[in-house]
Amino acid sequence: MPRTPSPILAEGPRVVVRHFTHEDGAEFTARARQSKDLHRPWLFPPDSARAYDAYAARLIEDPTKAGFLVCEKDASGTDSGGTDGGEAIGREAIGGGADGGSIAGFVNINNIVEGGFRSGALGYGAFAHAAGRGLMREGLDLVVRYAFGPMRLHRLEINVQPGNAASIALARACGFHLEGFSPRMLYIDGAWRDHQRWAITAETVTSG
Known about the structure:
By secondary structure, this protein is of the alpha+beta class. Helices cover 26% and strands 33% of the residues. The chain is built from 6 helices and 10 strands, in the order ββαααβββαββαβαββ. The chain has an 8-stranded mixed β-sheet with strand order 1-2-3-6-7-8-10-9, sandwiched between helices. The chain has a two-stranded antiparallel ribbon with strand order 4-5. Helix 5 links the parallel strand 7 (119-126) and strand 8 (155-160). Helix 1 packs across helix 3 (49-61). The protein starts with 7 loop residues before the first strand and ends in a 7-residue tail after the last strand.
């Protein structure tokens, strides 16, 4: 069945950003399975249909969360259909067209608080076929601007384990600043993990 596209929320030279849909599950989970070597031990995105459905439902229905897919604009490139990274992904799973083509990665805003705080906590990940190509930097920049624009947030925070050099590099490249260190902050993969806190506020992001 063809995927029902969600509206494009922001657009850059090479990627567009849009919300998750339940129809994205086939491609997302295939990409997640292909990317385990890249993601472990830092990231554990859903890699089965059942896990994706629950994950997407939280992002779609929970007002304290917002999920964004970073999609390549050129849907006719090497990632459209066929065999990718050793696992066949059907052309109907890849999608394309108005919603931006293959999924390069994702950015989620969690723990959204309104009122006087207007803050959220960011989490993100690239898929293996898109890693190292600058697509996630472009996508994260777009999400940050969307959060400070239409979402009217004031502050975004990224909590990242000190050993996750790629995630830290992306945060720094997108203008986030190191604010502090939180020992044993989050329970991940069987243990309480230390995290660095990186943050950015609306005042530090120029419009346009």
